[in-house]
Amino acid sequence: MSTRKIDVEEVNAVTVAKFTDKKILDETNIQIIANQLFSLIDDDHRKKIVLDFATVEYLSSAALGKLITLDKKVKADKGELRLCTIRKDILEVFKITKLDKLFKIFETREKALAGF
User: Fold this and answer.
1) What ranges make up the beta strands (E) of 1-116?
2) The whole model's pTM is what?
3) Residue 2: band (very low, low, confident or very high) from pLDDT cuts 50, 70, 90
4) What CA–CA distance (Å, rounded) separates 80 from 103?
5) pLDDT tens digits, one per residue of 48-100
6) Per CATH, the architecture of 6-111 is what?
């Protein structure tokens, strides 16, 4: 029995995955989220993915590691991953760790979807 940790919707052939938890901290939850995100690529063969962080208030470094793995999977599959609506304090972590250079980060979902 697995609980959905992401809400997935299709917007003009782009997969938008929105996190359901405010805090993505503990290892078990992170692994469930990672598995659900990885299956979008491995099982559903989605190529265009937008991760919507609108609900996320806290994100652990372990979660960042899974995002990097997800990005590698998407790129290996010739797809593209975009992130959007990340809170300023979390975005600061992306900047400190230079992950803002790895990921394509957009202020809004609309901007992330534009020109996909």
Assistant:
1) 6-11, 14-19, 23-24, 48-52, 58-59, 80-84, 104-106
2) 0.95
3) low
4) 10
5) 999 999 999 999 999 999 999 999 999 999 999 999 999 999 999 999 999 99
6) 2-Layer Sandwich (3.30)
